[in-house]
What we know:
Largest sheet: 4 strands, parallel
Strand order of the largest sheet: 4-3-9-10
Oligomer: single chain
Shape: elongated
Amino acid sequence: MQIYNTLSRKKEAFTPIEAGKVKMYVCGMTVYDYCHLGHARVLVAFDVISRYLRAKGYELNYVRNITDIDDKILRRADENGEDYTALTERFITAMHEDAERLGIAPPDAEPRATGHIEDILAMIARLIERGFAYAADNGDVYYRVSRFEGYGKLSGKKPDELLSGARIAVDEAKEDPRDFALWKAAKSGEVSWPSPWGEGRPGWHIECSAMSTCCLGDNFDIHGGGPDLVFPHHENEIAQSEAATGKPYANTWMHAGAVRVDNEKMSKSLGNFFTIREILDKYHPEVVRYFLISSHYRSAINYSEDNLQIARQNLERFYHALKGLPVEPVTPYNELPADNRYVQRFDAAMSDDFAAPEALAVLFDLVRELNNARAAGEDAAVTEQAALLRSLGALLGILGCEAEAFLQAGSAGELSAEEIESLIAERVQAKKDRDFARADGIRAQLLEGGVVLEDSREGTTWRRA
RNA sequence: GGCGCGGUGGCAGAGUGGUUAUGCAGCGGACUGCAACUCCGUGUACGCCGGUUCGAUUCCGACCCGCGCCUCCA
Length: 465
């Protein structure tokens, strides 16, 4: 298996530290607002990655954290006039709902920063002990960037050049403008925890170093996250962890591509972001998921109505092929016929840095064969190929719906299934009476309501346009 | 300015030193009462300019354009 490693900027053969086992940590979200499409992208990307690793027989330990103490959280809670834990609990629940709707399997562990304050304090103490951190006069504790030799190795930045680019408003308490906070002294009235350096709370990056090390050990296999975390977050995590443990931190760094809107980065600061739930109000969850996997996980994707529409049309082709065929059974990946050419091509694609778009192309070829088999009345082949299609789709987290249910899924305010069925019955009678004008009138009427009719030897079926 | 990524047919989006990506849309045909679905056929696509090569979209160099990070952000 090949995986692109941000650290080396190339694809590498993947070898886990311990044979047969994979330890993976992915940066989850800071819970002060609803998940947006960027979060969905990371969630889906690593969901597919974890499914494939497991399918290949690895015993995976997938840890995805929640950052539930942070400046933005406190500011938002203050604006709302609520306790910060009420805020974080609400958005954690919302995040779980969004993830579930997108078909994201829960991670094996979901540690929260506030649940690891002791580990954070222990790591900070260790960094001070080793000379990599210092307590400043203002009560903050900072990481001493100049002390860490490998600083910049992930993001490709040179420590010297960072100096000139560093913020103009240099905090006087820092020895060096590049230094970053490990511990922030509490302002009056703020939530805080006791520490040897006074009341305060963790800085932004230390929680991930503490939680990952705590859950997975000093050195683990894969660390992932969104594209904008490379610098400074992941760079700082490396600096913290490797300085504290004296050992290499994550072996492979994986980063998802950016989500853009109108060719501009979607971000909170630009205010052009879409939340998962507002998109889910307009599109079937599987359409959203399909949109996210139809580009390689590392490339940038552009959110647009057209692209979501294309995703839906693509899925319609799959579900048309699966019409009338059972959802079950789905065969576990390792029990699929190894000599099957679709399985082989699918696996070749996925084992090459999780190339889902290529895997989807294989599935479309399988659809064509399935459609041909169906036209030829080869029932056994149809059943077999449909099961294979479902099974391979399951690895990507798609094609798990009942075909008619997917094709007929609509939103409130549209024609109800009952109304549609009744009109179809009327049309069947009209056809029997050879009253084609009336039959076509009903077809046109339904089409206006967004419903497409499909006649076949077995009868008339319908779907939403 | 520093570092990095990318420019593929009407659209989306893979990939490759010489042979079909795939899907949608279009066109022609089959099927259909009409449609839809499906099937068959159909596209001289690889930003520009040089170089290497028998041959480059695919490797190398320069250039143009777009984007990202360098500041909170997945």
